[in-house]
Amino acid sequence: MPVTDVQKDMDSRTITITADFAAPPEQVWGIYADPRKLEQVWGPPTHPATFVDHSLTPGARVTYYMTGPDGEKFGGWWEIDEVDEPHSFTFRDGFADADLNPVDTAPVSENVYRFAATDGGTRAVYTSTYASAEALQQVLDMGVEEGATLAINQIDAYLAAA
To answer: In 3D, which of 39, 78, 84 has the Cα closest to residue 55?
Structure first.
């Protein structure tokens, strides 16, 4: 499994997930840059994602929804801040309603995804920071740690099959 570490820090309001992939950063980056590839690994296996709008360019807005086993849809959005292909990108991530509009009452995270070459492939560090410890606790209670870990752990199999 690619995920090697998960750290939650309520003082800094962060959750950081570290993963190692047996592929170069350009290949891992390619998954995040291509919405059809990203759909294969974003969200837990029981909740596959569909990206409606997607562009990894500063200022771009990404919208998507995940579909649960009973057909219920869960919307989300990103606002891309910075892109340093294939090393990192930063973005805000939030929940969306059925029309993929931001839900103002739900937590929003500031995210930094970093990809560094290693001897065997890529080390990815995913850091999400929330506005408050309560917001972090809210998403932890919703299962973000388990869901993100399940999603990231799909990447190795996807890369091996590609």
So the answer is: 78
Asked if 61 and 81 count as a contact pair (C-beta separation under 8 A), the reply is: no
Beta bridge partners of 76: 64, 95
Query: What distance in Å separates the CA atoms of residue 60 and residue 41, rounded to the nearest whole number?
Result: 21
Helix (H, G, I), strand (E, B) or coil at 99: coil
Query: Residue 14's beta-bridge partner residues?
Result: 9, 129
Alpha-carbon distance of 116 to 48, in angstroms, equals 27
Cβ–Cβ contacts within 10 Å for residue 144, how many?
A: 19
Distance CA 104, CA 97 (A): 10
Dump pLDDT digits (tens) for 101-130: 999 999 999 999 999 999 989 999 999 999
Tell me how far apart the alpha carbons of residues 149 and 134 are, in angstroms, rounded to a whole number. 21
Distance of CA 23 to the CA centre of its chain: 18
Cα–Cα distances in angstroms (integers) from residue 46 to residues 37, 42, 144, in the given order: 17, 11, 14
Q: DSSP readout, 13-43?
A: TEEEEEEEESS-HHHHHHHHH-HHHHTTTSS
Residue 42 to residue 64: CA distance in whole angstroms: 10
For residue range 48-71, list pLDDT tens digits in order. 999 999 999 999 999 999 999 999
